[in-house]
Design goal:
CATH class of the largest domain: Alpha Beta
Number of strands: 21
Pfam families: Helicase_C, ResIII, XPB_DRD
Protein name: DNA 3'-5' helicase
Strand content: 15-25%
Structural class: alpha/beta
Number of helices: 17
EC number: 5.6.2.4
GO molecular function: ATP binding; DNA binding; helicase activity; hydrolase activity
Largest sheet: 8 strands, mixed
Keywords: ATP-binding, Helicase, Hydrolase, Isomerase, Nucleotide-binding
Distance between the termini: 29 Å
């Protein structure tokens, strides 16, 4: 009498032995000579089980160690319409897929809703220790009777509900793979790296939820999320939620002129760089072009000089004295509102901190000092805070109303996250937030600004400021729903929203519309 096939989990893979009758399972299996058995990628668990069930094949499932859990929520709020829509879309897609919501739109509470509707052992993966502790605090408040643990930062718990960093989850992927039925990937754009992707590939979890404000990656690997988590099932932009889940907001771009000395120096440096690029037939319009420039600059003294000129010109644009004057004006205009100031480098952070006596946070700031600064900022003891990249992700400061970007990269994600720092309503139902983007006119910063706001490179841009327009005048340039201001002290009458209107919000459809988890 033939033995019943048994499915077992083996260090991030599945073993099915003895081979069952039928053919559907063969699409997933590979013969392993080392053990003389068929081996199947763990990520294929759900498809395999559904195929065996569809053929009526009897089998023993010894692979899964996940199980139902009781989640009695003591922290419940009335969901926003977009949260209900996102949850419904995720369910329609078979409880697999990516939800794209702007920062401060309630992704954590959406995850809580997903956990309550799928009460199984759950792994939550986050990119930083700060976020790990924020998630832990939220889940303990939401489910006080649940057994919730941490993996990362010195903790190695084994609990039905586990919050882990991407690094720790990847290291332990082979042992975690069959423990959890639901995996929630916060800031899921971190997943498709060579190191992190094993978290999804070694897991048999039939239910997967990815959360991000900006899932797109410059290397194109965001396409792998379709396989690792599931396709995108729901998306909303900041302007879609302004005045509802998010604060009303406007975006004001302030252009400042370089001084005559700065302009002459900038133009000379750009000429040195461009002469070299032209002779080397290199275009900086792509990542490949930049890589060619870096390699070429290392081969000769002329190339080295061109790279130093490029960096020198960039430093002038980023650190022009005109930006500091604008900053002083904005700090005075918006006092005593809570203000976040962002720069691209630590040197500018410390310069602003020293000149304006403003607390600073960089990657060098000790954890306890950082916690104390953020606490005093939330409480209102500090009115302003300056930082480089460390506040882009995983920091909750709902008290902030004003964000000032003095310099930054061309990353859409960084821009979206910085905007998100001031979009959270907190206790102020009538909050109105403003994001100022201060850039040096007629420099490479204008192109950087275009890229981070999601414009295409071939979109027409404003021509050079006409002769006679001086710093501090009242000219405005309205492009889309972004307001460009030349100088300061402008009346802010037009609401502007983030320039990422490239997506539709159609709910995903799926044959699997069952409201109850099947696994």
């Amino acid at each position: 009498m033939p033995r019943t096939p048994t499915l077992t989990f083996d260090r991030g893979t599945l073993i099915l032995h003895p081979p069952p009758r039928g053919k559907a399972w063969t699409d997933f299996a590979t013969w392993d000579d080392r053990v003389e058995k068929f081996r199947i990628p763990a990520i294929q668990y759900r498809h395999l089980v559904e195929s065996l069930q569809a053929e009526g094949t009897d089998y023993l499932d010894d692979a899964k160690e996940f199980h139902p859990v009781e989640l009695l929520a003591s922290l419940e709020m009335e969901p926003y319409p977009h949260q209900n829509e996102a949850l419904a879309a995720w369910k329609l897609a078979g409880r697999q897929g990516v939800v794209v919501l702007p920062t401060a739109a309630g992704k954590t509470y959406l995850a809580q809703m997903a956990m309550q509707s799928t009460p199984r052992t759950t792994l939550i993966v986050v990119p930083t220790l700060d976020l790990m502790h924020q998630w832990y605090a939220h889940l303990k408040a939401a489910f006080p009777d649940a057994d919730i643990g941490l993996l990362g930062g010195g903790s190695r718990d084994k609990t039905p509900i586990l919050v882990a960093t991407y690094d720790s989850a990847a290291i332990h992927a082979e042992t975690l793979g069959n423990m959890y039925a639901l995996i929630i990937f916060d800031e899921c754009h971190h997943l498709p790296t060579d190191f992190n992707r094993v978290i999804a590939e070694y897991a048999i979890a039939p239910y997967r939820l990815g959360l991000s404000a900006t899932p797109e990656r410059t290397d194109g690997k965001h396409a792998d999320l379709n396989i690792l988590i599931g396709r995108e099932v729901y998306r909303k932009r900041p302007e879609d939620l302004a005045g509802k889940a998010l604060a009303e907001h406007e975006i004001v771009q302030i252009k400042v002129k370089l001084s005559q000395f700065e302009r002459e120096r900038y133009n000379n440096l750009i000429k040195i760089r461009n002469d070299f690029l032209r002779e080397s037939k290199i275009s900086l319009g792509s990542i490949q072009g930049w890589q060619q420039f870096v390699m070429a600059s290392a081969r000769s003294q002329v190339g080295r000089k061109a790279m130093l000129a490029h960096r020198g010109a960039k430093e002038i644009a980023l650190g022009t004295d005109g930006k500091i004057r604008i900053l002083a004006d904005l700090l005075s205009e918006h006092f005593p509102d809570r203000i976040l100031i962002f720069t691209a480098d630590n040197a500018t952070v410390y310069k602003i901190s020293n000149e304006f006596l403003i607390p600073a946070i960089t990657h060098q700031t000790p954890v306890k000092e950082r916690h104390e600064i953020l606490t005093k900022f939330r409480e209102g003891k500090y009115k302003s805070l300056v930082a480089s990249h460390v506040l882009n992700e995983g920091v909750d400061v709902p008290a902030a109303k004003i964000a000032i970007i003095l310099s930054g990269t061309g990353s859409v994600r960084e821009y979206t996250q910085r905007l998100g720092r001031v979009l959270r309503k907190g206790q102020d139902a009538n909050k109105r937030a403003i994001l100022y983007e201060v850039i040096a006119e007629n420099t490479s910063e204008e192109g950087t600004s275009v890229r981070r706001r999601g414009f295409r490179d071939n979109e027409p841009q404003r021509e050079e400021n006409k002769e006679g327009n001086k710093e501090g005048n009242k000219e405005e340039d309205k492009r889309g729903n972004l307001r460009v201001v030349y100088g300061t002290n402008q009346q802010k009458t037009q609401r502007a929203a983030e320039q990422l209107g490239l997506w539709n919000d159609n709910l995903a459809k799926s044959d699997d519309s069952d409201d109850n988890p099947k696994f």
